[in-house]
Design brief:
With 249 residues, this protein is mainly α. It is built from 6 helices and 4 strands.
């Protein structure tokens, strides 16, 4: 009855000591795998934040390049370039703002504080040592090589084009890195979920009761008990009949 009520074949250690030990180890692994899957999902969210910020930085860099190409032509006056320089300078500041202020759960992502020397460690498995690193380099203006970029003169505008191309390449490389890490994490999550599901099924086969079998055993026991009670009742009736024959009233 207890197995039917709980649905578990092992309700106490005495039911199956070795089976209980195996079941508990599997439970620990299952819970660890599910938490690792949540860790990987959080890491994907972090990478999505970084990817969105870098996408905006690329849009700014494209505009900066457009301004530089425009300012490099000889048909503009110094006053024209001064107006372009105002927008150029503000966009450069905007790049730095994004690099400094992009964070996930207060963790800075694009200021270089989580680079190769201090990467983010993501636990992606149920056991010790099962982790992956995410290293995000600095995309601050000084590290993009744009600290001295200017379009105030035709010559400076011409140089700025090459500087911006280098900055675009750096941002694009880091964005590709983020995309590759995201794809890896998505496959990791699929594997963790499949492993957890298979372990859950295995643990169930060890510790869960076969309800149909348990009900059949219970019904069989009830039938045997009822048969035994019926035989006892018949024996008692036979004794009464014999007594009545021997000592009739």
């Amino acid at each position: 009855m207890e197995r039917i009520a709980t649905g578990r074949r092992i309700n106490r250690a005495a039911d199956d000591p070795s089976g209980l030990a195996i079941s508990e180890r599997m439970k620990a692994q299952i819970r660890g795998l599910r938490q690792a899957s949540r860790n990987a999902q959080d890491a994907i969210s972090l990478l999505n934040v970084a990817d969105g910020a870098m996408g905006e930085m690329q849009a700014i860099l494209h505009r900066l390049r457009e301004i530089s190409v425009y300012a490099a032509t000889g048909t503009l006056t110094n006053e024209d370039r001064a107006a372009l320089q105002m927008e150029f300078s503000e966009l450069i500041k905007g790049l730095d703002d994004i690099a400094k202020n992009t964070n996930f759960n207060t963790i800075p992502l694009l200021d270089g504080s989580r680079g190769e020397d201090k990467p983010l460690m993501i636990q992606i498995g149920a056991n010790s040592g099962q982790s992956m690193d995410i290293a995000l380099g600095s995309l601050l203006v000084k590290d993009l090589g744009l600290e001295n970029a200017s379009v105030a003169t035709q010559e400076e505008a011409d140089r700025a084009i090459g500087m911006i191309d280098d900055a675009l390449a750096k941002v694009s490389t880091q964005r590709a890195y983020v995309g590759a890490k995201t794809n890896r994490l998505e496959h990791t999550i699929d594997n963790l979920e499949n492993t957890a599901l298979n372990l859950t099924e295995a643990e169930s086969r060890i510790a869960d009761a076969d309800i149909a079998l348990e009900i059949m055993n219970m019904v069989s026991a009830q039938i045997r008990m009822q048969a035994a009670l019926a035989m006892i009742a018949q024996a008692n009736m036979a004794q009464q009949m014999i007594l009545q024959l021997l000592w009739p009233k």
